[in-house]
Amino acid sequence: MSTAPRPFDSLAFRNALGSFPTGVTIVTTRDEQGQPVGMTVSSFNSVSLEPPLVLWSIAKTANCFDVFERTDHFAIHVLKEDQHALSDLFGRPSPDDKFDQLPLANGVANSPILPDCGAVFECTLEHRYAGGDHIILVGRVQQFAVSAGNPLVFHAGLYRGLK
């Protein structure tokens, strides 16, 4: 009988994490030149009501990691169930024209605000923590908005709605 530990299967671990349904968000900010930057994120969570804090994480290998590693503000958009195309657009590493066809508003600290989302949390950076191959960003919610509609849900590699 061998007592050697089995190698950790990262793919199986990722698939196991996929058994937990999550909402789908897009996080936006601006780079140092003022250009909008955004990505699809499922690692969003509430932290505290007082003060109002939320968190999300980004892989160190993400194309826009450098921008989010330096930013001091961001907006988190909770997507509605009919916004899978928007999620897919922001889930791709490129193109740079993600924002071209979207009417943007400017939020707290000039964060780009996407239209027609289920909720938007406009944040200033409260903390940034190392988390393995990710960093965890904790934001203090400066303002938020909510609109009617069911959320987009991601589970087992597929988009789903509430039933």
Automatic annotation (TrEMBL):
Domain called Flavin reductase like: residue spans: 17-161
Keyword line: Monooxygenase, Oxidoreductase
Source species, domain of life: Bacteria
EC number in record: 1.5.1.-
Membrane-spanning segments: none
Enzyme type, top EC level: oxidoreductase
GO function term, MF aspect, one: FMN binding
Cited PANTHER family: FLAVIN REDUCTASE (PTHR30466), FLAVIN-DEPENDENT MONOOXYGENASE, REDUCTASE SUBUNIT HSAB (PTHR30466:SF11)
Family note: Belongs to the non-flavoprotein flavin reductase family.
Entry protein name: 3-hydroxy-9,10-secoandrosta-1,3,5(10)-triene-9, 17-dione monooxygenase reductase component
